[in-house]
Amino acid sequence: MKDQPASRHSRLLVPPPVQALCWALAMWAIASTWPAPVIRLPGQAVVALGLAGVGLAIDLASVVRFLRSRTTVNPIRPDKATSLVISGLYRYSRNPMYLGMLLVLSGWAVWLGHVIAFAGPVLFAIVLTRLQILPEETALEARFGQEYRDYKARVRRWI
């Protein structure tokens, strides 16, 4: 299939990992400057590190699956995909890399314990879905047609 310009499909010019880092920094800035109820529970650090660790593991496994499939990992150019990755974690989520980032941000929110910081992962998921995932799905459907539509029918967007 012929290449299509990135601007036609993807509206997000900042790669999702950079966007996740920006959300994490915003969460930290709010938590360190804005007085609000802070949650402190036994085992909070373990839960935070567990969520972040699982998120990082999901991200790593997902990237490895893309590399083994010899297709692009660049989320800004889904039109450059050479194959549809539907094995491994992609059997359960169409976006395990983004799910991993969401879990890392969720772990960060738990670590910070600031009530407002918990909005960060939610807003990240909403913005990422609207500005990255939906255009990415359009590009993948244009690239892979019925094969991608069948995949979308079988596998949920997040989990």
Concise description?
The protein has 159 residues and is mainly alpha-helical. The chain has 6 helices and no strands.
Give keywords:
single chain, about 160 residues, mainly alpha, 6 helices, about 60% helix, disordered N terminus
| Low-pLDDT residue intervals, each spanning 5 or more residues | 1-10
Order of helices and strands: HHHHHH
Distance between the termini: 29 Å
Task: Give the integer mean of the pLDDT values.
Answer: 91
Which of globular, elongated, flat, extended, rod-shaped describes the shape?
Answer: elongated
Helicity range: 55-70%
Please give the number of β-strands.
Answer: 0
Q: Major β-sheet, in short?
A: none
Approximately how much beta-strand content do the residues carry? under 5%
Total helical segments: 6
State Rg: 17 Å
> Structural class of the secondary elements?
mainly alpha
Please describe what this structure looks like.
- This protein is mainly α.
- It has a domain at 44-154.
- Helix content is 62%, strand content 0%.
- The protein has 6 helices and no strands.
- It has helices at 6-9, 16-33, 44-68, 96-112, 119-144, 146-154.
- It is elongated.
- Residues 1-10 have low confidence and may be disordered.
Topology:
Layout: H1 6-9, H2 16-33, H3 44-68, H4 96-112, H5 119-144, H6 146-154
